[in-house]
Specification:
By secondary structure, the chain is mainly beta. Helices cover 11% and strands 35% of the residues. 43% of the residues are buried.
Length: 654
């Protein structure tokens, strides 16, 4: 476990974090012919009458009869132009003499002049229905500038993707694609006020939601060992009985700054946990023995009665500043590092978000010469602390990701995650951070036990590929991660994999989509690994978790299985989805192994333009002899109503 070679990924990635200097943002407005004696004209398109220039020329004496049409043409006939305010109009803080910066299409020559949008923008949560809508367009062969293995996207980065794809969709898209584009544009209406205007400030409550959920039967909620009944749910509490989540999201954008907040009240009833014997057995298998203070209780082991849970949590809360295509932020933000739907090895929303400092290249970057071969690039970096660890306590984590799009249908991504530090092992300082960041050497057992430990290092690789000649029908992808290797590509036998395929249009049923994924976190490098490989580390015994839940792929340690989704798209933002899941944990890891089978039906429907209903029912049968004898089952009924108020905006003339 000590031959850690993944440091080779170190910040060769940092090479890509060099900011691309953009060319000048402004340019003169083209001179348009204006008659020497202006006739009465219609105000410029989209101009707010309260903000019209005050010194517009007017006829000296209005005629009682309609003014005759001039005998000589007032405007050049062949080339009509968009009307602009007369040049004599005074310039105020609300009127701009140059057009706003435009987003550079990702596939133009990088040698050309680039102008990057300078406005800040908040992130879209990864559990938002916006992503399934956008991914539907992608799987249909559109949205070519999207990096699907790097989420979240910002509101404005999505706007730029839609701007690039809109002409193709409107000219050649199906009714469904056009409808989806329209619904996504409506969602971003505050970001795109229309021709002649630039976004000013945006503020207000974006959504208010409440989820009512009933659970019948005993569930699983131990992603680090036996498994989870509810996955990719931010580590929210749930137990048999009535559960509730009620929350809001708030968007606030002004100039280069943005502030996003998402707060929730979460309720779950008390529930039974593991017995002392089971908790002790699992703890000792993690090299934390005995199961006693200060290592009891542990967030990774649901021991004893949980008690009623009624916390209020900030699921997301981040202040960001936009500069040269980057969002530099501090706070809690979502992350999803992979193209799969069921999980992401590097990072997902299976656990509660961490507080972190983040630098994210949210717009594609074209590097001269490099992008001629490898295409546009995006990169992301964040660092923050993990909670719920006791041995050692309060370690930190940093993650780097670099994604390339060599051509419009193919994307590859490399990630590196390092967990280091913690009380009782080594301090978290700039010195230990840079050592974990740059160390490229294997480590000995003595180094691992000392303050010279560079940390637990994991690397991930993923790709997605819309197949040639079938780019509107078939997408292949794979996510993978390894421990102690430079990259999963260099040692595939030692890597965990989640491959998948999307058939976006079934024969004679263009609105029906089939997606299938498999996963394997039990590579056959030796007959038995006792759960001590994927997501585990000899020093960081509680491994890849935050507040008890794995923050990567919920498949966890030594698991195998698959998922399938059949989705019928009723409209651009409505669908019916049927899901099946099967998962098994190895018997050498959990005595007797575990087995889970789930069936789920989900309906997303708009009751009104601004009210959305998401209702679903899930049936699960599971076996975990180490916990409960015989076959167990549970049923989950849930309904979430979301209200989308209108955001307050103040747009400006360009």
């Amino acid at each position: 476990m000590y031959h850690l070679r993944s440091g080779c990924l170190r910040m060769g990635f940092v090479l890509f974090v060099a900011f691309a200097f953009q060319s000048a943002l402004g340019q003169s407005v083209p001179n348009n012919p204006v008659p020497a004696t202006p006739q009465p004209t219609t105000p410029p398109a989209y101009q707010d009458p309260l903000e019209q220039p005050l010194n517009l020329s007017k006829p000296a004496a209005p005629s009682p009869a309609p003014a005759p049409v001039p005998s000589t043409p007032a405007l050049p006939a062949p080339n009509p132009v968009v009307p602009v305010p007369p040049s004599a109009a005074p310039t105020t803080g609300l009127i701009y003499q140059t057009p706003p910066p435009n987003y550079l299409p990702a596939y133009v020559d990088p040698q050309q002049s680039e102008r990057i949008d300078e406005l800040g923008s908040s992130y879209i949560p990864v559990d938002s229905p916006i992503y399934p809508m956008a991914m539907r367009l992608y799987s249909l062969g559109y949205l070519d500038t999207a990096f699907i293995g790097m989420k979240p996207w910002t509101r404005r980065s999505l706007l730029h993707m839609l701007n690039e794809a809109s002409a193709d969709i409107e000219d050649y898209g199906s009714d469904e694609a056009i409808d989806t584009l329209s619904k996504l544009r409506a969602y971003l209406l505050a970001e795109d006020p229309g021709p002649g205007f630039q976004r000013g400030y945006v503020t207000g409550v974006e959504s208010v939601y409440s989820r009512l959920m009933g659970v019948k039967g005993q569930t699983l909620r131990d992603s680090y060992h036996l498994g989870q009944t509810l996955v990719n749910d931010y580590g929210r509490p749930y137990e048999p009985g009535f559960n509730n989540v009620t929350g809001f999201t708030s968007v606030n954008e002004w100039g280069r700054f943005s502030l996003y907040a998402r707060g929730e009240y979460q309720h779950s009833p008390a529930g039974p946990g593991y017995s002392l014997a089971l908790a002790s057995s699992l703890s000792c298998s993690d090299f934390i023995c005995p199961f006693a203070s200060p290592n009891a209780p542990q967030d990774t082991i649901p021991y004893g009665n949980t008690g009623v849970q009624n916390p209020f949590r900030l699921q997301e809360a981040a202040l960001s500043f936009h500069v040269l295509g980057h969002e530099i932020s501090g706070g809690k933000t979502d992350d999803w590092t992979g193209p799969a739907l069921g999980g992401a090895f590097g990072w997902s929303n299976n656990a509660e978000n961490i507080y972190s400092f983040r630098i994210n290249r949210v717009e594609p970057l074209n590097i001269p010469l490099f992008s001629k071969i490898f295409g546009p690039i995006r990169y992301d970096f964040f660092v923050g602390s993990l909670k719920g660890h006791t041995q050692p306590n309060d370690p930190w984590v940093h993650q780097e990701q670099v994604s390339l799009r060599p051509y419009r249908d193919f994307e590859i991504s490399f990630q590196r995650t390092v967990i280091w530090g913690g009380k009782g092992h080594e301090p978290v300082t700039l010195h230990t951070f840079f050592r974990s960041f740059f160390d490229i050497n294997d480590t000995t057992a003595q180094e691992k036990e000392s303050a010279a430990d560079p940390g637990a290092r994991f690397t991930a690789f993923d790709f997605s590929w819309r197949l040639p000649f079938l780019r509107r029908n078939v997408t292949l992808y794979t996510d993978s991660e390894s421990h102690d290797d430079v990259t999963p590509v260099s040692a595939p036998r030692r890597a965990a994999f989640r491959p998948g395929i999307v058939l976006s249009q079934l024969p004679y049923l263009p609105r029906l989509e089939l997606r299938v994924e498999g996963f394997n976190t039990d590579p056959g490098v030796r007959p038995s690994m006792l759960g001590h490989f994927q997501y585990f580390e000899d020093i960081q015994n509680q491994g890849y978790t935050n507040k008890g839940f794995i923050f990567g792929d919920w498949a966890g340690r030594e698991g195998k299985g698959g998922q399938a989704w059949l989705t019928y798209h009723l409209s651009g933002n409505e669908w019916v989805q049927v899901e099946y899941l099967n998962k098994k944990n190895a018997k050498d890891f959990i005595a007797g192994g575990t087995t889970q089978n789930q069936f789920k039906v989900d309906v997303l429907k708009r009751l009104r333009k601004d009210i959305e209903l998401d209702a679903w029912v899930q049936y699960e049968s599971w076996k975990a002899p180490i916990y409960k004898t015989g076959s167990q089952s549970d049923t989950v009924f849930a309904g979430q109503v979301t209200f989308y108020p209108k955001l307050h905006t103040a747009n400006r003339f360009r």
